TrEMBL record:
Pfam families: Torsin. One of its GO terms (cellular component) is endomembrane system. GO terms for molecular function: ATP binding; ATP hydrolysis activity. This is Torsin-like protein. Coiled coil: none annotated. InterPro entries: P-loop_NTPase, Torsin. Belongs to the ClpA/ClpB family. Torsin subfamily. The lineage of its organism: Eukaryota, Metazoa, Ecdysozoa, Arthropoda, Hexapoda. It comes from the Eukaryota. One of its GO terms (biological process) is cellular response to misfolded protein.
Length: 102
């Protein structure tokens, strides 16, 4: 399945399963199209979702992984960080940054 079809599939998944987040839906699809279609970036695509609990941030991240990767969230190319769980201490921000860069 090529990338174009995967993004179309994700677009359908978001339409069918995510409500009241049209701006996020469009931003996600546009970011993926921009990353995969307009250039051959040597950098990984990083997406960061912000908002109050229960708005679907993790759900959408999982849908992206399921649409793009055969193994979904189990793919070696998918990394998920939850700020509250993975980076809980303000005083350790510099340490977290070092770990993320390695």
């Amino acid at each position: 399945k090529n990338v174009c079809n995967k993004i179309i599939g994700l677009d359908y998944m978001l339409t069918a399963n995510v409500y009241g987040q049209q701006i996020a839906h469009e931003a996600i699809i546009n970011a993926l199209r921009g990353h995969f279609y307009t250039h051959n970036s040597p950098k990984a695509l990083v997406m960061s979702f912000h908002g109050t609990p229960g708005t679907g941030k993790n759900y959408v991240a999982q849908m992206i992984a399921m649409a793009l990767y055969k193994k979904g969230i189990q793919s070696q190319y998918y990394y998920f960080f939850n700020g509250r769980n993975d980076f809980p201490l303000q005083r350790k921000l510099d340490d977290y940054k070092v770990c993320l860069n390695h």
